[in-house]
């Protein structure tokens, strides 16, 4: 009498049927593995790759922004340096005490005697204001030449005008002493118009 149940039924199947069932079961297990594990793993990998590409793009963009920031920072620093130099060359204020101090310092370094320093009234021009100072210096020829050279080396823009040479004199050491008068002229920027100032009388409101 044949035994009943799943085991007996499987054993009673022909070899081809058993192979078919085994292949079906293996395919089912493979399909379950693919859909449950492999597909999830593939999606995770694809998601990680997308995130990596996004992060890579953000990194490249951040590096570009950093390079642009560094470029702008260097450009700003260079412009500030140029602006500071321009302000020293052509300041906004007259700065007469500093100007006179520079002239006296240069005269002392050149070994000259500063006989006269006389500020004159300012002379406004269209783009700048002239600040003349009458000076008189005494010394030997090479000292005077050194004085003019050192004045030209100052950061502030200074022009030497109306240079006049007096008759040379001999000192106690039988050295010729020259006396030179000149107009040392420096400059400043004109005052900017006050935007808050009241309009001129008679102006259209």
What does this 3D model show about the protein?
This protein is an alpha+beta fold and 205 residues long. It has 2 domains: 15-89; 96-188, Alpha-Beta Plaits (2-Layer Sandwich), CATH 3.30.70.60. It has helices at 6-12, 15-89, 96-109, 141-152, and strands spanning 113-119, 123-124, 129-139, 158-165, 169-170, 176-188. Strands 1, 2, 3, 4, 5 and 6 form a 6-stranded antiparallel β-sheet that branches. Strand 5 and strand 6 form a beta hairpin. The longest helix has 75 residues, at 15-89. It is rod-shaped and about 145 Å long. Mean pLDDT is 80; it is low at 1-5.
Span of the ends, CA to CA: 124 Å
User: Would you state the CATH class of the largest domain?
Assistant: Alpha Beta
CATH topology of the largest domain: Alpha-Beta Plaits
Q: Quaternary arrangement of the chains shown?
A: single chain
Total domains: 2
What's the helical proportion of residues?
Answer: 40-55%
Overall radius of gyration: 47 Å
Which percent range describes the beta-strand content?
A: 15-25%
CATH-level-4 superfamily name of the largest domain: Ribosomal protein S6/Translation elongation factor EF1B
Shape: rod-shaped
Strand count, sense and barrel status of the largest sheet are: 6 strands, antiparallel
Q: Helices and strands: which structural class?
A: alpha+beta
Short account of what is shown:
This protein has helices spanning 6-12, 15-89, 96-109, 141-152; strands at 113-119, 123-124, 129-139, 158-165, 169-170, 176-188. By secondary structure, it is α+β, with helices and mostly antiparallel strands. Strands 1, 2, 3, 4, 5 and 6 form a six-stranded antiparallel sheet that branches.
């Amino acid at each position: 009498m044949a035994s009943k149940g799943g085991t007996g039924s499987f054993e009673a199947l022909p070899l081809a049927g058993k192979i078919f069932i085994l292949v079906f079961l293996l395919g089912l297990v493979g399909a379950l593995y693919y859909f449950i594990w492999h597909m999830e793993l593939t999606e995770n990998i694809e998601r990680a790759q997308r995130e990596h590409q996004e992060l890579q793009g953000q990194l490249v963009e951040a590096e570009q922004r950093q390079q642009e920031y560094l470029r702008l920072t260097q450009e700003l620093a260079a412009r500030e340096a140029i602006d500071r130099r321009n302000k020293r060359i052509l300041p906004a204020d007259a700065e007469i005490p500093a100007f006179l101090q520079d002239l006296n310092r240069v005269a002392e370094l050149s070994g000259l005697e500063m006989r006269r320093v006389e500020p004159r009234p300012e002379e406004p021009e269209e783009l700048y204001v002239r600040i003349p100072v009458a000076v008189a210096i005494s010394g030997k020829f090479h000292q005077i030449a050194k004085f003019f050279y050192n004045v030209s080396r100052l950061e502030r823009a200074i022009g030497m005008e109306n240079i006049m040479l007096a008759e040379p004199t001999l000192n106690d050491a039988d050295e010729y002493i020259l006396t030179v008068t000149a107009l040392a002229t420096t400059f400043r920027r004109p005052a900017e118009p006050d935007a808050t100032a009241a309009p001129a009388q008679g102006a259209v409101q």
